[in-house]
Amino acid sequence: MKKLLAIIAVLLVILIGMIIYRNGQKQVKNISVEEVSSIEQYLQKIYLWKEITNQAIPLFETIEEADDTWIWEVVKKNLEEYEVDKIQLEEKAKDLFGQEFVKEYPEEGTKSFVYDEETKKYYPTESQLDEQEDLFLLDTIQRTEEGYEVEIVEYLEDYTKAEEGQVEIKNINDEMIASVDSNQVDVKGIDLVKENKDRFTKKRIFLKVDGDKIFVTKVEEVKE
What we know:
With 224 residues, this protein is an alpha+beta fold. It contains 6 helices and 9 strands.
């Protein structure tokens, strides 16, 4: 049994490594496959939709300066419960952004959550999403004193013409880079982004490691 579990663990690491390689991530020395996987999982939690938050991940110097809509939409995306109180919302924010995150949730609610006077609870609002999927490609990862410095390439998969069998690969300025068959987008989409990286927006994300947790601290635009 132990041998079987060991084999499964090895195969899992190999699989993650293949996915990382396929996504074009430039892993630097001393950054393990497990670290890259943890970084990508965290970024998936905080990467949203530009039609809701203006940018899928905004620029900021400190997390407290980040756009409020983005912050509470990140919290909404990662909630396990439908009905929550103010304390639960703020605890989830700390879980995602670190225990030093001090921003309080407004008592009256926001467009992310509505407050019900009768139950004294907050309920998430419905997000109206378009047919464009906001995605990112991990490009580079470097270790820093606090954690990591990660560069991502941002792009869109537009499914407006999916019924015609086509998906358009666009940059976040809505410029079409290429069109691919909808049944091949998972295979060719990333390759197209890698081949045309100079036509996409890049962002540098600073991450802090605290125990087994990763937190975003700063996001800036990468200018070529």
